[in-house]
Specification:
3 helices, flat, about 0% strand, mainly alpha
Amino acid sequence: MTETQLLRARINELVAQLGNDMPQQKLARALMAKACDVALNEVGAMGAISMAEQATNLLAGRCTEERIRNYLQIKL
């Protein structure tokens, strides 16, 4: 299993714990908003933008396996 697949699996496990009370798109927006809120408080606006971009790049497969592992260790 690749690091990207591991990331997706971890995300899916966390989301599954939330249940099926909300449509996926609505849940995704809520989780993204929460992630941005946390990032804004922790690292400011530029850090939040960077975090969202990094997550997108990771899930799109545009990062090395090492970078994905580092992201998981630091961010999740």
